[in-house]
Design a protein that fits this description.
MetI-like fold; 219 residues; flat; 8 helices
């Protein structure tokens, strides 16, 4: 193991990790917003839009992110639409993540007993108040395990961004392997970089889930 090589090129991984996390944060936030909107449309059974959202979810969940990125980066150029690598990565993450977040929110909302909604309406609350004060707090608690799993899944999916010439962690690792044939060192730094990113997130969400269980929510 060449530790001198690791010390010399570890700054490249730090910069790549910053880029990876910036895209991940923007993409995950966008996915949460899109997923919430989609779940609301399906929950309230909005005509026409409900079917469009259903088709989007099936398309997104049943096609690899890599194929989606290729379509955005290489396919759209054929019709005159050109995106940068970073923009394609963000759009791809939102497109993929939105469907998973939508299903997570929907499962949480549907797990809330309908009698609670009926009780809220019977005491004079509006539908919006029932959603805000009764349904959503419980739904978020119930869907937290799926929600956290989706976030970790989406961060790991950033490893395919190198396919559209984005200088993320995987791109740096493959570049160093191709230039110097230091496979073990490059992959070791790659694994450590993802562990540094993902392990704290996993621990934080585990603590949040535990607190919600102890508070009596999500049962």
């Amino acid at each position: 193991m060449d530790f001198a090589f690791i010390r010399e090129y570890s700054p490249l991984y730090i910069e790549a990790a910053k880029l990876t996390m910036r895209i991940a944060v923007i993409g995950i936030l966008g996915a949460i917003i899109l997923g919430f909107l989609c779940s609301m449309i399906r929950y309230y059974r909005v005509p026409v839009l409900q079917r469009i959202i259903g088709a989007y979810i099936e398309l997104s969940r049943n096609t690899p992110l890599l194929i989606q990125l290729f379509f955005l980066y290489f396919g759209l150029v054929k019709i005159g639409i050109r995106f940068s690598s970073e923009t394609c990565a963000v759009i791809g993450m939102i497109f993929l993540g939105g469907s998973y977040m939508s299903e997570a929110f929907r499962s949480g909302i549907e797990a809330v007993a309908k009698i609670q909604t009926e009780a809220g309406l019977s005491i004079g609350l509006t539908k919006w108040q029932v959603l805000r004060y009764i349904v959503l707090p419980q739904a978020i608690a119930i869907s937290m395990p799926a929600f956290s799993a989706n976030i970790i899944f989406l961060i790991k999916e950033t490893s395919v961004f190198s396919a559209v010439a984005l200088a993320d962690l995987m791109y740096v690792a493959k570049d160093l392997i191709g230039l110097y044939y230091k496979t073990d060192e490059a992959l070791l730094m790659l694994v450590i970089a993802y562990l540094i990113i993902l392990l704290p997130i996993s621990i934080v969400f585990s603590l949040i889930e535990r607190k919600l269980r102890y508070a009596g929510m999500g049962n």
